[in-house]
Amino acid sequence: xxxxxxxxxxxxxxxxxxxxxxxxxxxxxxxxxxxxxxxxxxxxxxxxxxxxxxxxxxxxxxxxxxxxxxxxxxxxxxxxxxxxxxxxxxxxxxxxxxxxxxxxxxxxxxxxxxxxxxxxxxxxxxxxxx
Length: 130
Ligand SMILES: [Zn+2]
Prior knowledge:
Elements: H1 7-19, H2 59-82, H3 88-99, H4 102-121
Helix pairs in contact: 2-3, 2-4
The chain binds zinc ion.
């Protein structure tokens, strides 16, 4: 019996593909070709990434889930060091400025996570065939 067909191996390969921002179908093709520019289809297997108009609206759930803890940590670290010198509103403003470099990272991972979750739920969608 091959050990590569174990469910945990499949899950590990999918997690690695998400971390490396790879295609939800072949787990190898790059999803992005620029900082925020996506391929329309997978360069390796032809999987269509955006299944339909508005498809990536669902990525907002992943985006929110990723962004809130980061914003919270930034806010709390700043508040810990500057609570006695900065007013709360200025601390919030600095929090958002410090958060800005995370926006492209969150954008990319939220789309990749959304595609992988969607692929797990509906792997044979006709809209995805490329
Ligand atoms: Zn692919």
